[in-house]
Each structure stands twice: as C-alpha cells, then as structure tokens.
Specification:
With 362 residues, the chain is an alpha/beta fold. The protein has helices spanning 3-6, 34-59, 73-80, 96-101, 106-114, 123-126, 137-152, 170-181, 228-246, 273-280, 284-294, 300-322, 342-361, and strands spanning 88-90, 158-163, 186-192, 195-196, 199-200, 220-224, 249-254. The chain is built from 13 helices and 7 strands. It is globular.
C-alpha cells in the first residue's frame, strides 16, 4: 500500500498557472497591482543572478561550498515578502531569497561559505536569524522564540523554513509539539524540492508533508511553490492567522531543486534529465514574466533593465568576495580541546606541511 492508497491527492493552491494566467481561489485571494508584480519579478531575477554568481565563485575556488536555490525563487520571495518587518524569520541554509526580502546584503551570506566568519550579519538588525547548517533545529529555535513572543503579548509572528528531508528529523516533530500545545504564533514553511540530497520525497513520508500537521492539531496547506503569488497569499494569511492568536500552521510549497543539493553534489547520479525538463516548464520566473507580458505590465525595456541590474549585483558580489581575506585554515584545530591534544597538534602540523608544499612548488 502506497501513499496514494492512504489519502486522496491534495489540493494545490495556485493563483498563477505555468502559462501565466491568473487563477481565482475561494480561500486565498490576492489583490496586487502592476508595481508590486514587477517588484516580485525583480526580486526573483536578482536572487537567481547572485545565486548563480555564488556557484561560479565556488567553482573558481573562492567559496568552500554553496547551496543553490535555483528553481525555488517563488517559494522564497513570495513567503519572504509576506512578512512584516517586526516578524522574526528562522532560515536553514538555502534561504538566500528570503534573506534578500529581509534586507540582508547578499555579500554577507557568502562570508560563512568562504570560511571567514560564523554568520556574517546581525540577526537582530533584520529579524533574520543566522543560517543553520544542521537541518531541523531552526524549527525548534522558531517554536521557542514564538513561545516567547506569546508570553510577551507581542503582535508579531515567526516564520521558519525547512526542507522535505528535514521532515524526517526528530527536531521537527518536537517543534511541532511545542508549538501546538502552546498555541505559538509560528508558521512552518516546508520547501518540498523533491529531493533530500539523493533521497526522493516518497522515501521520506507516506503522506503529503502538509497533512502531517493534522497529527499535531494544527492546519496544513499545500501551495504551488513555483507560483510566487500563491506563496505570497498563503503565507501572508498564515502569518496573520498566527498573529491573531490562532496558533501554528504548516505550509508545504511544492517546488523543485533545479541544481545540485550543494556544489559538492552531482545530481546526474540520481536524477533523470526528463524530470528536470518537466519542472523547467514550470519555472517561477518565466511564469511571472509571461503574466506581466500578457497583461501589458512590462515590456522589453523593463526586462533589460532588471537583467542589467542583476549583472551589476553580480559584479559587486564577485569583487566583494575576492576582496575578502583568505580563511584561516588553522582555525579548525583551535579550541577542539581546552588544554590541547597531542593528536590534534600532530594533525595541524601535517596539514601545515601539506599547505606549504604548494608554496614550494611555485
């Protein structure tokens, strides 16, 4: 017996078809003008451009690692733009688009991936927590923070991100429990990009992820994660619901990770090209571009202007990263033991000799 035998196929909230046609939804409506639509388009294009530049920089040896968001721009920009300035956001490590909506300079994201800092920004300046590389814990942090918000009587909400793979972690279940029993004002946003590194979603859960919320006593909804308007409308509604004292909610954004899990990964070893081509037809940026063009809200001049802005951003990112200091390679050996350790010291010397060998070769 498979998942489809256990439950009916769930409704997918969609306000914009892949062809760019607006769709009415009885539960989630969105009144949005041309300026705001163009703003969402700009957000997604610029986010994709600096993300691509980060991938290139990693391939050139300027970054140690990078986790690309390619294909997930609508889920991140739509949900990020749904927040208020006084809301607090807890990302995982791929939420570069959400960081953009919170006003975090993209250059600050790359310092950690270069190894020159442990975060790169002050979380309290933008109410945007530092990245958490270990999957699962951000939800616990968010649930605890939301419980504090509730105790303070503040009129704010908390938004926390995780992936489909993280749904298998015990931390996620614990966060759901605490948020539910305390009726905390938190929205859990799952970017279901179909793959937890090389493990497909169907190996993670037998039922759609958003339906698991029912076991904790709060609602869940599945949204088209490649539809920026649907992600905006559903997240905005969920955050307002949380602020009004109705407790937590789970959003599952059905999207696709177009690139590798990270730059250390080779998705061709476990994914078929046909699968990617199928999702390319649902590209979130192309979808909104079609709508803007069909409705006469944007022309070639606008698209060219945004593309040029993206190139300027990429140049700034490239120059900024290359101006950063080299990582302190000896730092990983420090503070492993309070009083030092013979084996660690031996490993540090061996590593130093290895690095010196490159200089000798020059």
């Amino acid at each position: 017996m498979g998942a489809k035998d256990l439950v009916d196929e769930p409704e997918l909230v969609q306000l914009l078809s892949p062809e760019g046609r607006r769709i009415d939804h009885p539960r989630y409506s969105l009144d949005i003008g041309p300026d705001a639509l163009r703003g969402l388009y700009r957000d997604m294009v610029l986010t994709r451009r600096f993300d691509a530049e980060a991938v290139t920089l990693q391939r050139q040896g300027e970054l140690g690692l990078w986790a690309s968001l390619l294909g997930q721009e609508a889920a991140q920009i739509g949900s990020g733009r749904a927040t208020r300035l006084d809301d607090y956001v807890f990302p995982c490590y791929r939420e570069h688009g959400v960081a953009w909506t919170r006003g975090v300079d993209p250059l600050k994201l790359l310092g950690m991936f270069r190894g020159v800092n442990h975060g790169g920004w002050d979380p309290n300046e933008n109410n945007f927590h530092l990245y958490t590389i270990v999957i699962g814990p951000p939800l616990l942090h968010a649930a605890g923070y939301a419980m504090g918000v509730l105790a303070d009587g503040a009129d704010t909400a908390v938004l926390s991100y995780f992936g489909d793979g993280a749904s298998s972690q015990g931390d996620v279940a614990e966060a759901f429990t605490f948020a539910s029993v305390h009726n905390a004002p938190v929205v859990f946003f799952c970017q279901n990009n179909q793959w937890a590194i090389s493990t497909p979603t169907e190996r993670q859960t037998r039922v759609p992820i958003h339906r698991r919320a029912a076991g904790w006593g709060f609602p869940g909804v599945r949204v088209d994660g490649n539809d920026v308007l649907a992600c905006l409308a559903v997240t905005r509604d969920a955050l307002e619901r949380a602020r009004s004292g109705q407790g937590p909610m789970l959003i599952e954004a059905l999207t696709y990770r177009m690139g590798a899990h990270a730059t250390s990964d080779d998705p061709t070893r476990y994914r078929e090209d046909a699968e990617r081509r199928e999702w390319e037809a649902k590209d979130p940026i192309l979808r909104l571009e079609r709508h803007l063009t069909q409705e006469g809200h944007a022309d070639d001049a606008f698209y060219a202007e945004v593309a040029e802005e993206g190139e300027r951003l990429a140049r700034r990112i490239r120059e900024g990263v290359r101006a950063m200091p080299d990582p302190d390679s000896a730092a990983m050996f420090r503070h492993v033991y309070a009083d030092g350790h013979e084996l660690v010291e031996e490993e540090q010397k061996r590593f130093a000799d290895y690095q010196a060998s490159f200089e000798e070769g020059n």
